[in-house]
Write a structure and sequence with these properties.
Elements lengths: L1 H6 L5 H8 L4 E6 L4 E4 L1 H7 L18 H13 L3 E10 L5 E12 L5 E10 L5 H24 L2 E5 L2 E10 L1 H18 L3 E11 L4 H14 L3 E5 L4 H10 L8 E2 L2 H11 L9
Length: about 280
């Protein structure tokens, strides 16, 4: 019974059966560019029979020889693997089909290239309107990034003292951005005191206090002291009290002026008032 079942298997075994069942067009070539394998999906995509593919040059399935050479060049330049390379295939009748190709070199046990295998997917190129919409989305993303940077600027007010002024709604995502920018500034500029001004900030979600405490701890870990100004929300104050084990370790001030004076004192300076 087992022998009978074995004889009923496809000639290429389970691997060939798997490749033939793949919905993507698969074409393998040898080192000379001669097609050695094609699956049924390749025949469907190129609207031809298997005999029109196997044993023929890979150039035949491209729009032109230049297209075929371009794919081969990309494969070598990328180290033997490409993903979603855009090209144009050609059916037996000459119809052109925009395709995306993912492929890889095939190598022997010594590491020599003996051919390659490619997966071809037909796709519909974007229309002019879709391309314009993509450009508009990219422009919006750039503006959002600029808005994020402007929404929490970090600058140096005195050698060794950096100030981050937060304006508007402050949620977890925005605080994560602020934390990244502030930490980068502290490390690059060797900041000794980082002052965060929350006077004009509005807490957007319940994670803000936890994010604030985490930011303060990380700043201290990279070697800077912290000053927080303008915690006017009782909700934030109550949440901070529960999160900070030693509340005396927080340097908080009610106004920016008092915060700057406190920060100056930390670096051994003070504001001299005229008499």
């Amino acid at each position: 019974m087992d022998r009978a079942r074995a004889s009923d298997r496809p000639a290429g075994g389970y691997l060939e059966g798997l490749l033939q069942g793949c919905p993507d067009a698969i074409v393998a070539v040898d080192a000379k560019g001669t097609i050695t394998f094609a699956n049924n999906a390749a025949c469907a995509l190129l609207e031809c029979d298997m005999r029109d593919l196997v044993g023929k040059s890979i150039i035949n399935i491209y729009e032109s020889e230049d297209r075929a050479r371009e794919t081969n060049r990309k494969l070598y330049l990328s180290g033997g693997v490409i993903h979603c390379h855009e090209s144009v295939a050609k059916t037996k009748a000459g119809k052109l089909i925009p395709t995306r190709i993912s492929g890889a070199h095939l190598k022997d046990s010594s590491g020599n290239v003996i051919g390659s295998v490619g997966f071809f997917q037909a796709y519909r190129p974007w229309t002019a309107a879709e391309s314009k919409m993509q450009e508009y989305c990219q422009e919006l993303e750039a503006r959002i990034k600029e808005w994020e940077d402007l929404g929490a600027p970090v600058f140096e007010v005195w050698p060794g003292i950096a100030v981050a002024v937060v304006v508007g709604r402050l949620d977890s995502n925005r605080f994560a951005h602020l934390k990244r920018v502030l930490l980068d500034h502290v490390k690059i500029n060797k900041t000794r005191v980082a002052l965060i001004d929350l006077t004009a900030a509005i807490a957007g979600d319940a994670e803000v206090p936890a994010q604030l405490v985490k930011t303060l701890r990380m700043i201290r870990l990279v070697g800077a002291q912290c000053v927080v100004v303008g915690i006017e929300s009782t909700t934030i104050a109550e949440a901070l009290e529960a999160l900070v084990s030693d509340i005396s370790s927080l340097n908080t001030y009610s106004s920016l002026q008092a915060g700057i004076e406190g920060a100056l004192a930390m670096v051994g300076c003070e504001i001299a008032r005229k008499t």
